[in-house]
Amino acid sequence: MEAEIIGIDHGNAAVKTRNASFPNGITEYDFEPYTKQNMLEYGGKFYVCGSGRLPLLKDKTINDSFYLLTLAAIAKELDHRACGNKVDIILAAGLPLTGFGLHKGAFRKYLLRGKTEHFLFESREYEITIRDVLLYPQGYAAILSNMRLIAGEPSVILCDIGGWTVDVMRLDNGIPDAGTCRSLELGMIRCFDEIAEQVRRNTGKSLTPAQIETVLKGESCSIDGAAKAMIQEQGRRYALKLLSAISESGFDPTAMPAIFLGGGAGLMKRHIAPEDGLCRIIIMDSVTANAIGYEYAAQTALKRTAP
Question: Kind of pairing, strands 9-10 and 14-16?
Answer without folding.
Answer: antiparallel
